[in-house]
Write a structure and sequence with these properties.
This protein has two domains: about 110 residues, no CATH class; about 160 residues. About 85% of the residues lie in helices and about 0% in strands. The protein has eleven helices and no strands. α1 crosses α11.
């Protein structure tokens, strides 16, 4: 190389640098998004739940609106869905009440063991002194914890109320709201925003429908298996499996691990071993059958991407981030793919 001539950069290094700064920008945007969600997580969770409810109930409301005015159709759809949820909770409570005899018997056995322990010399006095010293030394902590728990309950109720409020407007006139938002943008970007928005909503609704269907199938399989094995609280454990399935990869194993502990305490190690085998079988069914079939209309992500997304979301925003991470990544990737295809069609 002659003195004074600029150094040459290989094509590989130039390409690597171009992708590196893009990865850094995307990473910064994702981190900023999760930071904002963590700062205003109640609002973010409420809007997310409102979108989930909209994705589930908007098709039903559209069908009902063919024979009724739109506001009445939306009201009937929302009231019917709330009644369905309350009915499921009532069914769960009835199942728990139906197994009250078994639970009371196990509770009495546990109380008997505690009484036997307390009858040992010095056990009761030692326990009383321990409790007294703990309460005296942690009085302020206990009071603040109780107040914090009450604050969390109020925050949850406020979030649910805001989610329902958002769902009402999204289901009733979400399309008009989206058109109004597009009209506020410069004309040069309205077309790209429209393409990206349609791709995002198509992916989000597909993912929502798919994950709800997968969770429902998992819950039915788990509830039926636990009922056949004679494990108590089969219905509540099935509902726990349904909710846990919304956290990909790790939710179902955790819920089934809880079921295995209940089976071990009530039915012994043999039934618990069968429940552990059930964890493996349902995991295989979910990973190799349900997800490929049910999620075919949504963006299919590589399992490594799903795992990294769930872990990153949980680190950034806890359980909320773990639930939101996969649909968020799916939506972002679908928008990128749609814009790239539209740009390629324009260039052609």
């Amino acid at each position: 190389m002659q003195p004074g001539t600029p150094p040459t950069v290989t094509p590989f290094l130039r390409t690597a640098a171009a992708y590196a700064w893009r990865v850094l920008v995307v990473g910064l945007l994702v981190y900023s998004l999760f930071a904002v969600l963590g700062r205003f997580h109640e609002i973010g969770v409420a809007v997310f739940l409102g979108l989930v409810v909209t994705a589930l109930l908007r098709p039903v409301a559209d069908v009902v609106a063919r024979g009724l005015p739109r506001p009445l159709a939306v009201a009937l759809t929302l009231i019917g869905s709330i009644a369905l949820v309350l009915g499921v909770l009532a069914l769960m409570g009835e199942a728990v009440a139906g197994e009250r005899t078994t639970l009371v018997r196990e509770f009495r056995v546990g109380i008997g063991r505690i009484e036997d322990w307390l009858e040992r010399p010095g056990a009761l006095s030692d326990l009383q002194s321990r409790i007294g010293s703990f309460l005296s030394s942690h009085r302020s902590t206990l009071v603040s914890t109780a107040l914090s728990g009450a604050g969390h309950v109020v925050a949850v109720l406020t979030t649910l109320a805001l989610a329902l409020f958002c769902a009402v407007f999204f289901v009733h006139s979400g399309d008009r709201q989206w058109r109004w938002f597009q009209e506020q943008l410069p004309r040069s970007v309205r077309g790209r925003v429209g393409i990206g928005g349609r791709a995002a909503w198509r992916t989000f609704t597909g993912y929502t429908h798919g994950i709800v269907l997968v969770a429902a199938i998992n819950a039915v399989l788990v509830g039926l298996a636990l009922w056949l094995l004679g494990v108590p609280l089969a219905v509540p454990l099935a509902l726990l499996e349904f909710l846990a399935a919304f956290v990909p990869l790790i939710g179902s194993p955790i819920a089934l691990a809880v079921a295995a502990v209940v089976a071990l305490a009530s039915q012994g190690p043999l039934v618990a071993a069968v429940v552990v085998a059930l964890i493996v079988v349902i995991g295989q069914i979910e990973g190799h059958l349900l997800h490929p079939l049910v999620m075919s209309w949504a963006v299919r992500l590589h399992p490594l991407v799903v795992a990294i997304s769930v872990i990153a979301g949980s680190i950034a925003a806890g359980i909320v981030g773990a639930v939101v991470a996969v649909p968020l990544v799916s939506v972002v990737w679908s928008v990128h793919t749609a814009l790239r295809e539209a740009r390629g069609a324009t260039d052609a």
